[in-house]
Amino acid sequence: MTTSPAVTIDDPYFGQLTADGQAGGFAAKSTWMSAFVTVILPDADPARLPGRRATAQALWSEAKEWLAKVGKRATDDLLAKKNAGWLEEGERKLSPAAFLRQLGPVSQIAIEDDGAFIFRFGDSKLFWGHQISVAGNLASGATRATVKGLSET
What we know:
The protein is an alpha+beta fold. The protein has helices at 49-61, 63-85, 96-102; strands at residues 8-11, 15-20, 25-32, 35-41, 106-111, 116-121, 132-137, 141-147. The longest helix has 23 residues, at 63-85. It starts with 7 loop residues before the first strand and ends in a 6-residue tail after the last strand.
């Protein structure tokens, strides 16, 4: 049995983009604030790469500021949920600073059209292994944080 070669695109900004069926587009490894992340481009259309490059350049050029924005959105949207029903036995309610410290590292950044993005964090057990995502766009900033697998209440 032979396997077909992976579909790749050499991109001057993202490096080698590899078709990723799970992502429904392309994925690449990159560095975000000294840590490796997976960059996801959810659509396989190479014509959309220039706009997504511009979004990535804006995020990466102000990485510290964007990390603070997405961390604040996660804290604003999810801290009350954590403290209301996701504390371990004997665990005290978290302060905003403690929640932010436990948020975990950025593991993926999805770059979409028109400046849109989704940051996904390693959860560090805040929500018992559920992934935390923060969506937004360059114009409006980080606009919504969710926990994968939980209903929106």
